[in-house]
Each structure stands twice: as structure tokens, then as C-alpha cells.
Amino acid sequence: MTTQRWLQLATALTALLLVFMIAIAWRSAVEEQRRASDIGARTQATMERIEARANALENEAGR
Hints:
The chain is mainly α. The chain is 94% helix and 0% strand. It has 1 helix and no strands. The N and C termini lie far apart (92 Å). The mean pLDDT is 93.
């Protein structure tokens, strides 16, 4: 094989590796975003339960 062929092969392999790494990074970012959204939703639900319980305790104390 000529030097030019080796360079073309190396370029193709590098491009393939770059695409693979971008796909992995993208997938990881999407997964992190999903987890963050899930945590935010659970936090919001917990805060609402705490507030509801606090309101109930205030109402009971006021009677």
C-alpha cells in the first residue's frame, strides 16, 4: 500500500472514531438531562407534600 492509501485509511478511521465519540457524548448528555428532570420532578412532588402537611398541621393547630 502506498503512503497515500495509509493516510486515507487513517483519516477514515479517525473520522469513524470521532463520530463514535460524539454519539457516546450525546447519549450521555441526554441521559443526564433525563435524570435531572426526574430529580426535579421528584423534588417538586416532595416539596408539595411537605407544604400540604405543613398546611394541615397549621389548620389543626388553629382549631
